[in-house]
User: Which sequence fits this backbone?
């Protein structure tokens, strides 16, 4: 329980959780989901339920994956041309 306390967890609650089967169904569901997507070892990281990195990788791999995921998932802004003197409106309404 020293580990639980060292990271700020409640020792009594940690002990109770470890001695009970409170999260058994959740853990089994996570294992089943991992098997379904082909996870065969750890570590295994999934981003946006679509992109995966398997095994211990150098930081550069994660930076590259995160950049790719950002590019694929970020909102795209579309600017429409309008009259130069058109009224601009914000969250509070138009000025």
Assistant:
């Amino acid at each position: 329980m020293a580990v639980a306390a060292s990271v700020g967890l409640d020792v009594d609650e940690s002990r109770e959780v470890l001695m009970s089967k409170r999260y058994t169904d959740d853990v089994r569901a996570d294992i089943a989901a991992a098997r379904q997507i082909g996870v065969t070892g750890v570590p295994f990281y999934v981003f946006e339920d679509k992109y995966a990195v398997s095994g211990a990788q150098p930081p550069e791999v994660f930076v590259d994956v995160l950049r790719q995921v950002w590019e694929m998932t970020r909102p795209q802004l579309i600017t429409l041309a309008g009259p130069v003197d058109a009224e601009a409106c914000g969250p509070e309404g138009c000025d």
Remarks:
- DSSP finds four helices and four strands in the chain.
